[in-house]
Amino acid sequence: MGSPKNSTSSRRERIPDKPKAGGLSLWGFLKSCIGKDLSQIPLPINFNEPLSLLQRLTEELEYSELLDRAASCSSPCEQMAYVAVFIISGYASNGRTTKPFNPLLGETFEFNRIEDLGWRIICEQISHHPPVSATHCEGNGWIFWQEIRFQSKYTGNDIQITPFGEAYVEFSEGNTFKWNKVDTTVHNFLLGSLWVDHQGVVEILGKGKAEGIVCKLDFIPYSGSSLRRIKSETRKVKGEVLDANGMKKWVIEGNCDVQVEISEVMTGESDEEIILDMPRIPWKCGDLPDGAENYYSFSKFACQMNESEDGVAPTDSRLRPDQRFMEEGRWEEANAEKVRLEDKQRTVIRLRTESEEMKHYQPVWFEPVARDDGSLIYKYNGNYWKCKEQKDWSKCPNIY
Q1: 136-140: long-range contacts (C-beta < 8 A, 24 or more apart)?
Q2: What is the tens place of the pLDDT at every residue in 247-298?
């Protein structure tokens, strides 16, 4: 495995402050969008943050040490408990109320953190309508991958984001776990104080040697006053790990932007007697840097993802001119570039649909693989890092 250009010590810790933008009437723009899928509507960058959705998906790995810990577990039920905490931690950054850039068809993002975190990831936008993103990450004793798309709808004062697809993690000894994602709502988009909540159930299913093990995580929507929200009372999550016989083995409880506790369930001599071991706190949400509210409330990890790096594919998100202009505070140029890139994408897609040979887009780094039920999921084809080593980007489309 190669090493990234930037070492841990040289990685940046912040990005430029967000400029004060004016001249755009949010209501004037959004009133025509009520009830529509926002992923199908060209939005000005005033709604965005200077990261692509591919980078936002990579941000779910900010607390990857939880997967390292899971890889060292001897019990598959304990392993699932740590996977559950990892899943919860992935929602910590989703408290941000800004929108990532929609990836262009064929856009990629690589992030090589082998040197300091022990993993590297490659992401690709594999479909335009519907917009589908695929990711593949190789870590220490584990592989994480997902194929996901999001539908977002503006309902008047809220934005509802509904994910479709599945995520997986496979450990070296053969245990595999798959799960879904829950809905997210951005409240008070126009009136009141913006805040984010999650609701729904994540069902984690064990596969392979972990077949039959199940965990259900209930993301509980906040029901109190929106004017007096207490952080410890919002974004609550509760769950249980059940073994293949349906016996409760672990209890999980916490908040996806504060911390999570897990407790092992011990059964005494009587089957009715259940003793909870002292709870562990395997994860606490890290604090944001001082002044982060001035640059989109990014953590240090988020700031590092769009840092320029040599040798990446020409389709990498860090090379998007509109996104780079936005990060630099050049919003007028960013909006102009965003329009140009989206027009270019529409032209290419139109030409492709007119050609029978080119009608169906073929991803460069992912290929369809049959699931057990016969449906298809796109998985990494193993070629990206080889091509990077050879400096061969001949298969990459011209998207910028």
Answers
A1: 136/366, 136/379, 136/380, 137/61, 138/1, 139/64, 139/67, 139/68, 139/71, 140/68, 140/71
A2: 999 999 999 989 999 999 987 655 555 767 688 999 999 999 999 999 999 9
